[in-house]
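User: For a reading group we're discussing how well predicted structures match intuition. Take Carbonic anhydrase. Before you show the prediction, I'll give you the sequence so everyone sees exactly what went in.
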Amino acid sequence: MAILSPSSSVSKEPLSFPLSIQGSNSKYLSLREQTIFGAKGKLGAFEQTQLKLYNDSNYSGLKMKASRDPSWLISEIKSDKLESPATKSDTDLFDEMKQRFLSFKKHKYIENLEHFQNLAKGQAPKFMVIACADSRVCPSNILGFQPGEAFMVRNVANMVPSYESGPSETNAALEFAVNSLKVENILVIGHSCCGGIRALMSMHDDVETSSFIGSWVVVGMNARLRTKAAASNLNFDRQCRHCEKESVNCSLGNLLTYPWIEEKVRNGELSIHGGYYDFIDCTFEKWTLDYKASNLKEESRKVAIKNKTFWC
Ligand SMILES: [Zn+2]
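Assistant: Thanks. Here is the predicted 3D structure of Carbonic anhydrase, as structure tokens, for the group to look at:
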């Protein structure tokens, strides 16, 4: 059990963020960096980010990676990006999609016909998964969820708004999964190089944003504030990395603002988990919210975690 700290290696610095951005619902925010999801135009910056990370010997969380050469992974990502749909016609793309569907039908559906026919009658997934919309981080691919195993919602930066924030597609999905499907686990998955988190960390507080992205990612404002407080001595790229995990934990705290979730967690009927997928090294961290040890009375909702594991 430990009070959450996405990276215990960062030093604690005095708060350095402007007071004017502390309100989590501030509308007076703008984006310095509008490009998200590793868009093609940002590929150079993306690669530079990785090089900076691996070159810093003071960052203990990355020491293991420093001994490994990620260049082949980076070049693989780069070549994937550059060969994407621009070089193929729509017909080619949908022909490939058709072949993938027919392959699924032949090798998955037909061979497991009874299972799929049962799914046609209803679903009883054990997991509710909240993940980023980023095309590189599909949980079904990474964690092998099969049809019927996970009720899923994906949004920009895998965020869970608080109960007080009002309706959204994310809490609508949560309501159905928890109250109707009665899932036993909620898993929030963050990831490396998250464009939504970069947008959150890039915000200015002096210009009103008309961006839907900006209006959405302020959901994670507490994660930004905690990152600025704990990791202001790090460069911007590493602050983003810190925030990617901090944001997951803020979402775990926000989950407990829903009375029908908090009650089930308190009664042991529902468990809440965080995850972090690093697609540069292909590693996965997983942890569980420790309800009894969490401090939920303060507005900041500092949660405690337990059973942290690292899959590599
Ligand atoms: Zn993301």
